[in-house]
Amino acid sequence: MRSSILVLSLAKVIVLVGCGLCLTAGPVLSQPRDGAGSCRGFSGRRAGSLADGLVGVMASLGRLNLSQDQQDRVRGVKEEKEATLRAAEALVYGLRRTLHEAMVAEVLNEQKIRSVAVELGLAEGNLSVERARTRSQIWQLLTPDQQESVQRTEARFRECLEQRRQVTGRRGRGRRR
Fold first, then answer.
1. Count of CB atoms situated within 10 Å of the CB of 150
2. Residues 20-53: tens digit of each pLDDT
């Protein structure tokens, strides 16, 4: 008797789980595949040290059919800039942490918050300039057709960001709580 109740309970659980999977699989499987009109390729994550301002160029490089000479020159630019970009990013992230710590400190220190915020703004500005320089150097290595392809990718990326903003109601990178 007890085992038949256990079997029936287990069967109910299996049926409920199966129904749940069927209900969630439909919407998941109906999502568009990567391709025209799809935003699945843009996850919103940083793409590494060259992310801001370079997302279109860097995301497109693998699809641009670069010549061997272009590949070598792009690799050279990336290698040349990597240490500078990593150091600038580390400074920004460290200052963000310091600012957060100052904001949640037990004792309010407005001057410290303001000074760290100013320092963070300068660091973010420097990082943005370095990313723009890197993008510009890589851009100069591309043919007009390749530049046009990158521009299409960047436009699609902006469209996906706008779609995401409309769905989530958020503008920035901040987390929802």
1. 24
2. 545 544 444 444 444 444 565 544 444 443 444 5
